[in-house]
Amino acid sequence: MPLDHSIVFDGGWRILNGQIPWRDFDMPSAATPSFMQALTFKVGGVTWGSYVAHAAVLNGLFCALVFSFLCRLGLRRVPAALYGAASGALLFAPVGVPFPEQHAFFFSFLALWLFLVGRTSPSAKRAFWALAFVPTALLLGFFSKQLPTGLSPLLLAALLALPATRPRKDALIGLGGGAALCFIFACLFLLWTGVEVGAINHALFELPMSAADRRMGFLPSPAKMPWHIFQVGLNQGLWSVALLHGITLGVGVLVVIKRGKDWLRVAGLLALAELVIQIDVVTIVLANNQDGVGVGWIFLALGIAHAAVARVAFETKSLRMVPAILSAGALLILARDVVHFSYAVNATRAANDMEFDADLADLTDLPAALSPMQWTVPDHHSYAAEDLVATLNYLGDAEGDFFLVGDTSILYGLTGRRSILPSAWYHPGVTLPAPGGPEFQVWQKRILANMRPIAGDEGRDEVLRIVEERAGTWVGNWSIRDMPLVWKDIKGRILNEVDLGAFRVIELSPKSPSL
Prior knowledge:
By secondary structure, the protein is mainly alpha-helical. It has a domain at 368-508. Helices cover 57% and strands 5% of the residues. The chain has helices at 7-16, 31-44, 48-72, 77-87, 100-120, 124-132, 134-142, 146-149, 153-161, 168-193, 197-209, 212-216, 225-231, 239-258, 263-287, 298-315, 322-346, 385-397, 410-415, 438-451, 484-490, and strands at 401-405, 463-469, 494-500, 503-508. It starts with 6 loop residues before the first helix and ends in a 7-residue tail after the last strand.
């Protein structure tokens, strides 16, 4: 998917080559996965294989964390392992590569797991350090994507309300110590990189907020919201959602009637499970992505509800068989959901607006750096693998740098050329100013500055080619002419145009040997 699959790839490539988010380019999200991808590229090379490996490792860690979390809530190891393993089908698998929302879900849950470890650990020292790293996990999640991380403190508050081994005062002390460490780290980062706080505020809040009103319009009306909450996941064919709501309703009524000695903990677990689902709902709606991108916590939520049922059954002799029955039923439902979701969403890449079919995949031999990719693209960007291969070969052999007007920014890393765009990707009102205003003029001047060489910098050649994706970008049909200052600068230097199918290359004469 030219846009979604390129964001973190290009972000990691930029950072690997010394560019820093908010100093050298604007990035409203995906900073954390980009820094992680830079490290992955350093270790495994700038390849699609190392890109996928990054997502796969975090996906496996997520499964392990779900298992550990549910065990700490009192769920037996077998059903906890079931929920943990099943969760691997829902987080990174729908996208298949590192992605902002997926990292935000991962680190937000890591913060929740650390908080639970801190609240339940018998060791005061271990509890303190677990709690102290909660703000760091939240910070990493926030710099992945503002949602769901911005809502995750609600989950921490729900856990804080539950009875636990450690007193609540210890939790607040640990969180306070961790916040102080984050502040020190942030100051050191700003001093080391030269990033200005105002630039971060502009990229993370001021620019994206210009699209906030439009995103709020995606929310259902208050009258429709209850049904919308209920159906999230169901429209992806996940029966586990119905099971979760059924457990919450049934056990909730039982808790009100029975009022056992552990009723507060059971009610708290049920509330936590439903809150997890609702955070999924808000994230899906406001992010305006396919639902499959935001369902990563559904099996986790069901596992939390299962833990609540187990506590009710433990107190009531007549309900002792409930956990065993639920485990058997959950096994069948989870197995069905994992198989269905894997074939209907993961294998088709429906979350990336594709309908991938391995039997119909383009069998063009791709470069070794793109192994193990199987090729298809969404209808919006219909072009053949041969077009990408031809463009890679052409740019790899050409002298000088190039400037891409399009989404396929993996071209920079795969050809070993520096990324020119002063924004993480093309999205007016989110990553770059809306066209026409004075900020847009400043943004174009940054492009022109990036296109020039610098004397003595061997890694900074002059831009001698403009590469245009004929399909435009995902958010509009951008071309070099949509940047009047840039077009004015290059139109008198055009030497030739090269047709590479989906890509058009404008060759330029050098403007100056150096500055």
